[in-house]
Amino acid sequence: MTLVDPNGMPVRVATDTHELPGLPAPTPLIFNFGHEVVRVNAMQRPPRQPAVVQRLGHVVVQTTRYRASLDWYLEHLGLLVSDFSYYPGQRERGPVLSFNRCDRGSTPADHHTLVLSLGPENRYLHSAYQVADLDTLAAGGEYLLDKGYHRSWGIGRHVEGSQIFDYWRDPDGFLVEHFTDGDMFDNTLEPGWAPFSSSGLGQWGPKVTSDFLGLHGAAGGYGLVPGAIEGLVSVVNALRDDNEFDVQRLLGVLKGARS
Hints:
Elements: E1 2-4, E2 10-12, E3 55-63, H1 66-77, E4 79-86, E5 97-102, E6 109-110, E7 114-118, E8 123-130, H2 134-146, E9 151-158, E10 164-169, E11 175-180, E12 184-185, E13 192-195, E14 202-204, H3 210-213, H4 229-240, H5 247-258
Parallel strand pairs: 3-7, 4-13, 8-11
Antiparallel strand pairs: 1-2, 3-8, 4-5, 5-7, 6-12, 9-10, 9-14, 10-11
């Protein structure tokens, strides 16, 4: 079945699909945590190789009509909101970004499967893929560096969702995230609220980059205002149209990008 969301984006809903066997998982490493020693006379030697992806974790979509889009996905797909974000100083105007998870009842689900973000145009921003652990993620990143790929941002740990993350540009310029150790929620948790800021995207790790935020026209991040000519055109067009991205929202996203 193919549905169409308020942005005109087709959403294909599939059930009872043919399942393929999973890729072989890396052997779990044994860790010594502080004074708790369980690995003796054995070395850690994780191979530098492509990170084995276990599954698609989430996608991030930007929309000029955030509230209508959020209501649509909550109603048609039964999603739950894990966390809301609002622009600094604009709490009374409501959220501009939400991390939305599947409602699986008492069975834990990823903190977010779909992220919706208000922005100057309707577009896909990035997708994220789970890997087994930090060593798989980091060694896979070293492999990508050796092959000449561009790291957009990472390695670090997010706040909302808690994932250890590593962001890369694929050959077409799209943003791709490898992550591990994300939060899992059942359906009993109420949404959290926090102001949106670039510094608030990570608990630790390098400072968030302009490339990730989309400040140079790159297709990624959480949909901040791009700096390329085509991005500025999209901002002007959005301000002219009847949607949620108005001048106050533009000022809010610029303030969030600087904070």
